[in-house]
Amino acid sequence: MASRLLILALFWRVFAPAQAHARPQPPKLVVEQAEIDLGEARSGTVLSHTFRLENHGERLLQIRNIRTSCGCTASEISTREIPAGGHATLTATLDLTGRAGPQAEQIRLQTNDPETPNRVLSLKALAIPRVNVTPRTLNFQQISADAPPSGRILIEATTDAPLQITDIRTAHARVETALTEVEPGQTYHLDIRPVETGGTGHFTERIEILTDDPEQPSIPALVMWQIAEAVSVAPRQLNLMLSDPPQPVTRFLMIRGQTDLDPPMEVTSVTWEGREVEMKIGAAGSFGTRVEFSITPEPGMNGEQIRIRTNVPGFENLSLPVRVLTP
Is the pTM of this model over 0.90? Predict the structure, then answer.
């Protein structure tokens, strides 16, 4: 009996490793470089790259599905079944027609590789538009209603082909535009000035630049500006949330005066009407004046007012309403 067990043990020691080694390893997809940067190319160019897909396993590798992230990316594979030790090639193309700026598209593979059944290949490129418009968004920020400023958008061709600007359109006629040809067929200046300056608030205008370029016949641009009162307070309403048990909270107010005020705005006092609340008033650089205070919210504060006094004519006394919210 002992000799029989010894024979079995020797058999297992000799033949079991061979049997384990004889089991073929599962398929394994290896892509040496899965992310490719194709560099700069002009809009309208179609770029391509060929990926090499290798099977480092011992069983057949199957490419079950291939998906691209957008219609501008296409792919073609030499075979969807890669034997052990073999390889396939996948050629991907990236169409930059009508595109500008950084581009990044993906090719997603689904395989029978048990470790990484989903692989992502990516193509990157920088598309240089045939017509360059800078800036695409012209932001005047805060302006004076009495003297609105003017700004400029540069329009330039990036090819040797002559460029003609056929029209400039505005969505709401909130700005005046003046087009100047600087370099014939190549460079233009579009000067813009807001004309809708009534009231206060934020304003936007969409501009459409029409050209004779076949790829960019219409190029959008955006103009933004803000008209504020001589003195503005943020927030416009102080909201306080009740808690159980009541907890003190610290709040801030920002009071800002227009930069062209003469003399400059000065906050002379801030008080909470009917309550003894310490208001700490300090400068906040270009943001104006900051007021800091701590308070424990209670229901009776709802509807009360914070009084702000300044040296600006017409804005000597400002009121900030208080609202108490229940969770």
Answer: no
